[in-house]
Write a structure and sequence with these properties.
The structure is a single chain. By secondary structure, this protein is mainly β. It has one domain: SH3 type barrels (Roll), CATH 2.30.30. It contains one helix and six strands; from the N terminus they run αββββββ. Strands 1, 2, 3, 4, 5 and 6 form a six-stranded antiparallel sheet that branches. It is globular, with a radius of gyration of 16 Å.
Amino acid sequence: MTKDTISAALSAEGLAASQDTFTLAEEREAIFLVAAPGDVMPVNKVVRVELRDKVLCLHTVKDEHFWFTYDLILGLRVLAAKPGKERVAGFAK
């Protein structure tokens, strides 16, 4: 993928960039699929994406940072916000 393609995909999901950095809301996360020799490696629970000139940095909820060149990114998946559950104390009627 290219920088423009990734930026367009994240923008289409309703995410706004601040100086080429996309930050996902607390209730959302993304999964990036990265090419590895003979395999595809998923980078799960991405909450921030920094788009640089030749590389991108993926930040996860565990405060891990993954740096990749754009040509290694095969795809991305942005998970929708999870609906809030109604919780009832005791027995519901």
